[in-house]
Design goal:
Layout: E1 20-33, E2 36-43, E3 46-52, H1 58-64, E4 70-79, E5 94-105, H2 122-127, H3 129-132, H4 136-158, E6 162-163, E7 181-183, E8 191-193, H5 199-207, E9 212-220, E10 233-242, H6 246-263, E11 281-283, H7 284-291, E12 304-306, H8 308-311, H9 319-326, E13 330-336, H10 344-356, E14 364-368, E15 371-373, H11 382-392, E16 399-405, H12 407-425, E17 435-439, E18 444-447, E19 452-455, H13 466-472, E20 482-487, E21 490-497, H14 502-511, H15 516-531, E22 537-540, H16 544-551, H17 582-587, H18 596-603
Parallel strand pairs: 3-5, 6-9, 11-17
Antiparallel strand pairs: 1-2, 1-4, 2-3, 4-5, 7-8, 9-10, 10-22, 12-13, 13-16, 14-15, 14-16, 17-20, 18-19, 20-21, 21-22
Helix pairs in contact: 5-15, 7-12, 10-12, 13-14, 14-15
């Protein structure tokens, strides 16, 4: 007989009755029924109820063991009596009568109750993550993650992609976040950077003559935490292809995303569907106008309209909006169907939400009994109200909410208001994953802080119109072959058709203020490769963590990450980051120059 087990804890059935078996696992629960002790023994595969009869010398051993101790039991499989069968448990028709018990590891009092349904506090869960991960729902989510990655790999291999591994210690690259840097022992004063993404390497792989690359790539970014983003590291399906257009990339990625979400879409017990047909393509400018966000949740049926022209009319007297429009601002409107009969508290709650967000309020007009009503209706004459109806599609019983500000600020706040109104109405579509592509991103944006034009997205993208656009157009009007794939309001990935011509790259970077010397110093390897013949190429990198988060119906990425850091980028379990041995710092030629506040805290 095997040293630890003949069967797993989720394996035994009534057909095993009469067999002598050996099981190993954790003590999930113990119950004393008048001298007869029942033990739920748990491993990764399930639970088996085990029994120690009254008078057994093993009772004392079990009594001394706490929950989460690891034991090996040997005993005979017996059928449960009909009234004690547990239909909810796969092994619920049997139990094991313990004849021998070996303690593999005795547990201290656990700070996390593994068999409890409710979560402990996040700090406790992260500090004792190995205990948190023993819980059945966490085991399921980690298995989901593994299954998703395995399925992705198979799908990529089936499409003739080759898997590569790119360097972890590399040079800094502008990916929009801070680098984690690693000092060099052999080269004093010089540093490696952990890759924010394998961007340059995957492009260089295409320039090396390979045609289809992919990697389940670790990426490292020193950035502020959000619920849907790790502050340290994450994984992505990194993809690059040669001799492709934007549409070719879409045609490869859509079946992968659709296949993954269809394969694992019932993880929560509810079947989640995906609309048939190609994912919608929405230009960035249209997206910001209609949804106020470049990652719209299309389950929300509300759309935003521009109604600036109405408030610019001579017969409209609402000065709060009119004055902003006259100075180049805009008025955005959101039509909420059939809410005119809602109580006043519905509108007051939304107004209060807007004030908490820093706005004066959320003005509205509702159409009831053939006329407009609401706080600002008296400033909008009947003819202007009809114009509002025509633009927004509002009908009797509807309400129109307004946002007024400079164009970008108005767009973003209207996007938030669109979500708040949808939530208040409770009309967000359920049971569906709604994907879309956001396309035609601006190549450049104006950095108000630096007072200069800079890249708005990926600096290695091909501008639409190539060199001619760079030489003849206003930089802020140039579009790029850049795109995002979005699902249910979450950006899963950015991607682009790359710039493969060195002269276009030099011109593109010069517009953003990078001299040729700086370009050579930072990206000389890729520039040199381009000069030896680079194929047209492009790619994308959907985030594994966010994919799994959506499939698991979670809203925090830490729920689908094995050993995550907290919001402050700390690993409470491993006590990282931590102070370093001075000798190790000396090896890499580092002297600390800590902020004074730290010195005061140390002195205290």
């Amino acid at each position: 007989m095997h040293a630890y087990r003949t069967h797993k804890c989720g394996q035994l059935r009534t057909e095993n009755v009469g067999e002598t078996v050996k099981l190993s696992g954790w003590i999930h629960k113990k119950r004393d029924h008048g001298g007869v002790v029942f033990v739920d023994l748990r491993d990764h595969y399930g639970l088996t109820q085990c029994v120690v009869d009254e008078g057994s010398p093993l009772l004392k051993t079990l009594d001394d063991l706490r929950h989460e101790s690891v034991i090996t039991v040997t005993g005979k499989v017996v059928a449960r009596s009909p009234e004690t069968v547990n239909e909810k448990l796969p092994t619920g028709g049997i139990e094991v009568r313990i004849e021998d018990l070996e303690v593999q590891s005795a547990a201290d009092v656990s700070p996390i109750v593994v068999h409890a349904e409710e979560d402990s506090g996040e700090e406790t869960r992260l500090k004792y993550r190995y205990l948190d991960l023993r819980r059945e729902k966490m085991q399921r989510k980690m298995k989901l993650r593994s299954g998703v990655i395995a399925s992705i790999r198979k799908r990529m291999w089936d499409m003739d992609f080759t898997e590569f591994q790119t360097p972890i210690l590399t040079a800094s690259s502008p990916e929009g976040a801070r680098d984690f840097i690693v000092p060099s022992r052999l080269h004093p004063g010089k540093f490696y950077a952990l890759p924010q993404a394998p961007q340059q390497f995957k492009q260089l792989t295409m320039m090396s003559g390979f045609d289809k690359y992919f990697q389940i790539a670790p990426c490292f970014r020193d950035e502020d935490a959000r619920a849907d983003r790790s502050p340290t590291d994450f994984y992505q399906l990194d993809v690059e292809m040669s001799f492709v257009t934007q549409e070719d990339i879409f045609n490869v990625i859509e079946p992968v995303m659709r296949g993954i979400f269809e394969e694992f879409g019932d993880f929560t017990g509810e079947r989640i569907t995906i609309p048939e047909g190609a994912f919608p393509r929405i230009p960035y400018s249209e997206c910001m106008l209609k949804y106020g966000s470049d990652k719209p949740d299309l389950r929300n049926p509300l759309e935003i309209c521009d109604v600036s022209s109405v408030f610019a009319r001579d017969d409209v007297e609402f000065k709060a909006f009119k004055g902003v429009v006259e100075q180049g601002g805009v008025v955005r409107a959101i039509c909420a169907p059939q809410v005119a009969d809602q109580p006043r508290s519905f509108f007051d709650k939304l107004n209060g939400w807007a004030q908490k967000e820093g706005a004066p309020g959320l003005g509205y007009v509702l159409f009831k009994d053939g006329e407009g009503a609401g706080p600002i209706a008296k400033f909008i004459p009947a003819a202007a109200q009809e114009a509002l109806k025509e633009i927004t599609g509002a009908k009797e019983g509807d309400a129109i909410f307004f946002v007024c500000n400079k164009e970008m600020e108005a767009a973003k706040f209207a996007g938030k208001a669109r979500e708040a109104i949808c939530d208040a109405m409770g009309n967000r579509e359920t049971g569906v994953f709604k994907f879309c592509w956001i396309v035609d991103f601006p190549m450049y944006e104006y950095d108000e802080k630096a007072k200069k034009v800079d890249f708005s997205h990926n600096p290695f993208s091909m501008p639409q119109g190539g060199m001619e656009a760079l030489e003849t157009m206003d930089p802020l009007d140039i579009l790029a072959y850049q795109y995002d794939i979005v699902c249910n309001g979450y950006e899963l990935s950015s991607g682009a058709v790359r710039n493969h011509k060195p002269e276009i790259m030099e011109k593109a970077f010069s517009i953003a203020g990078y001299s040729k010397d700086v370009l050579e110093a930072k990206f000389g390897g890729m520039l040199n490769a381009m000069r030896f013949g680079a194929p047209p190429h492009g790619g994308i990198a959907p985030g594994i963590d966010r994919i799994v988060m959506l499939l698991a119906n979670e809203h925090n990425i830490r729920e689908v990450t094995l050993f995550p850091t907290n919001n402050a980028a700390e690993c409470l379990m491993m006590n990282a980051p931590s102070e370093m041995d001075p000798n190790l710092l000396k090896d890499v030629h580092i002297k600390l120059d800590l902020p004074k506040i730290k010195d005061k805290e140390k002195a205290a």
